[in-house]
Write a structure and sequence with these properties.
alpha/beta, 233 residues, 8 helices, Rossmann fold, two-stranded antiparallel ribbon, globular
């Protein structure tokens, strides 16, 4: 087992791209995994390969650390999830008060499969882009949930399985600042051009902060975070 290694949950979105750079700056060996759960914005999966290829080209020091990448088929999650992220329906709020984009159990399932992969691959740490600062109120993005999952996986696999969440206490402006600190304008530009976060999967419109419909909750967060970061520079 490597003395310093991580498996990054890299969806192809902006947050997970920053987390990947964060992991590459800290660990000797980094692998990546994504999940196809028939998400409405599956275009993010198409972006991943381009982003990883250009990351290797533009950051040779990180290229030497970046290992295998996998996409796992979790279509069954989409089958049991009647949400605005897995169905063609309007984005709003459910009776529970949570956004209709909430996919119950999504991060719990993701972490379980990632933990199993890390166990098999001999990787020490899981890294994810979960955040409870300016987010949509998803309960499976909270630090308490991550701690509970880490404890459960540690007990269930009989080996330490920590879950690192570098963005947990950052707002979106601070996340852009972190990207800039990690890789400067080159990394920021790469994230803007080659990642995807819009819930509707719209890549027909290019904004200063990246591609998206410009109106969904994810786009709204990105736009506000970008503006705040740029104004504070």
């Amino acid at each position: 087992m490597a003395t310093s290694s991580a498996l990054v949950l890299f969806s192809g979105g902006q947050d997970s791209a920053v987390c990947l750079a964060w992991a590459l700056a800290r660990y000797e060996r980094v692998e990546t995994v994504a999940f196809d759960y028939r998400q409405r914005h599956r275009v993010e999966l198409d972006c991943r390969g381009v982003f990883l290829s250009k990351l290797r080209e533009q950051f040779p020091a990180w290229e030497a650390k970046l290992g295998e990448d996998r996409v796992l088929d979790l279509g069954v999650l989409g089958e049991v999830s009647d949400t605005a992220l897995t169905r063609e329906q309007a984005i709003g709020f459910a009776e529970s008060g949570l956004p209709s984009t909430f996919v119950p159990g999504r991060n719990l399932v993701f972490l379980t499969f990632a933990g199993a992969m890390a166990y098999r691959r001999g990787l020490n740490v899981l890294v994810g882009g979960m955040c409870e600062t300016d987010y949509s109120g998803y309960p499976d993005c909270r630090r308490a949930t991550m701690d509970a999952m880490a404890k459960a996986m540690t007990l269930g696999m009989d080996r330490s399985m920590p879950v690192e969440t570098p963005l947990m206490s950052l707002d979106k402006a601070q996340t852009w600042a972190l990207a800039d600190d990690l890789g400067g304008g080159a990394l920021v530009g790469l994230i803007v051009e080659e990642t995807h976060t819009c819930y509707l999967g719209d890549r027909s419109q290019r904004h200063d902060w990246g591609y998206g419909c410009g109106t969904c909750p994810a786009c709204d967060l990105r736009a506000k975070g970008w503006a705040k970061w740029r104004a504070g520079r």
